[in-house]
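Key idea: predict the complex, not the pieces.
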Amino acid sequence: MVETTVELIIHHYIAEHVDETFDYDTEIFEEGLVNSLFAIQLMTFLEKEFGIKITMDDLDMDNYKSIHAIGEFVRRRQERDER
Amino acid sequence: MRGYLTLSQQATYHAFIEFVSTYVEPQANRWDIEQRIPSDVIRQCAEKGYLGATMPQEYGGQGFDYLTYGALTEAIGRGSISLSGLFNVHTMVMESILKWGSQEQKADWLPLLAAGKKIGALAMTEPSAGSDLMMMQTSYHQQGDRFILNGQKKWITFGAAADVFLVFGKLAGTEPIACLVPKESPGLSITPIRDMLGFKAAHLATLDFDQVEIPVTHMIGRPGFAISYVAPYALEFGRVSIAFASLGLLRACLETCGPYVMERKTFETALIDHGMISHMITDMGVDLEAATLLGLEAVKAKDNHSPDATEKIMMAKYFTSRAGTRHATNAVQIMGALGCNEHHAVARYYRDAKTMEIVEGSNQIHQRLLGKEFAKRAKRRMQRSEVAKEAQETR
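Result:
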């Protein structure tokens, strides 16, 4: 249930910025759905929406490649911040 | 701008204006003619705490919000666009370290930079790589716990006055990285660039790196992310600086031309009563107001940590720098021969305004990104409204 909510929110935000249809496994940067400028917007969105702070330790493209990956990353980051 | 600030912000803004009126504005033409800002002016900015404007207090900064930082750069830009370049590049380096640096890097560098004991500059542009950073030729190669840096950076604002550079390059020819390189590093040569059109006193320089060795611990962020994350994050602060410094330049045009057109007469009529002049001043005032609102919207979004800030900042930079060029051109036209003399501030506004259209992402790059985004958004909006209409009709 939590997983669905996080992914849904991310999907909704990205869908506001792209024309193409995509699913939770689509590689949004690799397939050119969004440009490099969007990376900073997406980072800011994730920080604000989910109350996390993205730092140098989080610079790993695997964290941002798809909606599933971003959802996983957000949950890991939230858990780390709670500890 | 003052009218949009709270009472406490107005008091802070007033202090910025006092500083600029006393230490900046009276000297700015001379700095341009001599093509350098004296080091004691940089020291005065440091003593006021202005160089650490946006840094948290734990690192010795002022902890200003971005609206207050905007007000500071507006005031500085009113006095000297060249000096605003210092705030621009120095802030971009500090913000990059604050966001992407390790705890050690923050502890080592931020207190020195925030206090102005060290000056930072961003080394991104190369002779063949400006807007298209992927064309960078500057290279890093790792040897044990050191990077070997080779290449050339050009048009580096405050490059001839900075103590440390955030240098962008490619690791092993592929992965973009950015490292802090102290100016005293053996193999680094710094050559001042003179005779620019604008930014004449902004200590522009060429940096040549010949087998420069730096510890790998000087890397900011991680390999592969310098162009996609570190650079755009830094440039967002650069664009805030350019937008507000251009706003200061716009105000300077109006505050110079306004009194002049009220007093100067031709054909027994004050200039302001000639329709052509009145038109120019009207557009100047309206664009100043529009640019102020765009700028304030942008920094409020940044202060709210809104994802929209990226676009709003680009819009503010684009609009205000273009308006600066248009109205500085008109200011020269209004002032006539006076405005064509390098001892008059208007000539400096004219030269500097053009530079603001080029730095921190040329306005053509802004058009490319913003134009496409506006068109795509409009298309999506129309498609959604058509879908909604069809759904309603089938009910």
